[in-house]
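Protocol step 4 of 6: structure prediction from sequence.
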Amino acid sequence: MTNHHTPKPLRPSTLSRKVGQRPGTLSLPETALPPRLFLMSYSQESFLEQECASYTALQEALAANPNLNHWIDLRGYSDLGLLEKLRDDFQIHPLQMEDVLNDYQRPKVEEDSGRLFIVSRMITFNDKHRLEDRQLSMFTGPNYVLTLQSDYVDCLEALRERLRIGKGSIRKRPISYLMYAVQDTITDYYFPAMARIGEYAEELEDCLFDNPSRSLLSQILDLKREVVKVRRIVWPERDKINELMRMEDDLVPDELEIYFKDVYDHTIQLMDLVDNYKEMTSSLSDLYLSNVSHRMNEVMKVLTIISTIFIPLSFIVGLYGMNFSRENPRGGINPLNMPELYHPYGYLTLLVVMALVVTGMVYYFYRKGWLRSN
């Protein structure tokens, strides 16, 4: 496993914000994509889908089908004039449009003049084990839902396909049901991301027993940070759904309350998963430290055993390595002055004694179980 511990760059939209600028000022992100306008117009009996080449074409399509429900989808923010026209024609508050372009708002819902402004975050867990989250801004009106996002790719294609084939009851219900369906689809896509996080955590846990390296610890800490990011997203998502459930009937019909309760239950499940994975990553860190400590103890045990074996050997060779004179100044022999040094088999005898000492100590360590790995 490779170490992906690299600092995450700041978002271009965040870098483009100027301190002290007038509230509601629209500042385009430096990496904004060219805008693409998609329109789905539908009723129980009919369905129309097109990509509008210009904002004028969008206005003409809306005017030609005033009795249909419309899903207007803008992807890409590089055209400031287009954004200003959308803001004015759909009566979007300048501060709300500024939140759209800042592109890193926490999930929330706001009510303004009988319309809803909803911010959601779409998340994925990529192959580099990093959390990717993109903002989806949504405005509701009498017969339309307007979604805005900075990227061309999102998680709503399954919902679009349901609209195309007329599957389910989206075409039969009021436009507020589409708003619910968008939110429900986004929430459902949290679960595959959480599943990948769980699989990656289990993979790290397996690697901990094979090779608890410092790079592995770095990956565990990175994963822990990603889980914290998910928690910062899911928590306000839950609060947002809870607030939608308590909206007035003219904003969120009572018949949708049971559907939003289902989404709310999903957010509760996500919170449980996030808390479990957060605890799991903390346990992985503790497990890493425990494994490293265990390995260090094993090394120290081996070194201690080796040192213990050589202590008596060092004593013996040190004792018989002392240089005392065999003869006294008067020419006599000192009988008690290490006579073994001059024994004809003294060297071999000493080697045998040392071998017996080592054998005895090894046998003793074995009987105590100190030579067995834990």
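Step 5 (inspection) to follow. The CA atoms of residues 245 and 258 lie 9 Å apart.
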